[in-house]
Amino acid sequence: MEEKPRTVAFALAIVLVVATTMEMSLASGAQGFCNMTRDELMACKPSISTAKPVEKPADACCTALSHADLPCLCAYKNSGMLPYLGIDPNLAMQLPAKCSVPAPAQC
Fold first, then answer.
1. What are the structural domains of the chain?
2. Engineering a disulfide at 92: which of 13, 14, 65, 72 sits with its beta carbon 3.0 to 4.6 angstroms away?
3. CA-to-CA distance for 15 and 71, rounded, in angstroms?
4. Nearest to residue 15, comparing CAs of 90, 68, 91?
């Protein structure tokens, strides 16, 4: 069962990459990717970054992850671009467990 949280975290990292590399015209509070705003996505980035990652995810990150559309995040799970974009896949895989967020059954 360890694989499901890792898949969701990996997918979350992909969404972070998309959010940071695309110009998004999101108003504050508007939903962007997988029921998460750009600000919510960015709240998770420090915990999965290859450059001086923080050990404990921000409360805002965990709150956002708890209401995110996790099956949507799972759709991004097979991308291999994370290391090239400054995202540590191992750290990304740990994010759901660190936030105590269960993974969806179909991920």
1. 3-21+30-99 (1.10.110.10)
2. 13
3. 12
4. 68
- Nearest 5°: the CA angle 60, 27, 42 is 30
Q: Provide the token pair at 4.
A: 């499901």
- Most confident range, picked from 17-21, 41-45, 69-73: 41-45
Residue written as token pair 């050990």: 55
**Assigned token pair, 16:** 């972070």
Query: H/E/C letters for each residue in the chain?
Result: CCHHHHHHHHHHHHHHHHHHHCCCCCCCCCCCECCECHHHHHHHHHHHECCCCCCCCCHHHHHHHHHCCHHHHHCCCCCCCHHHHCECHHHHHHHHHHHCCCCCCCC
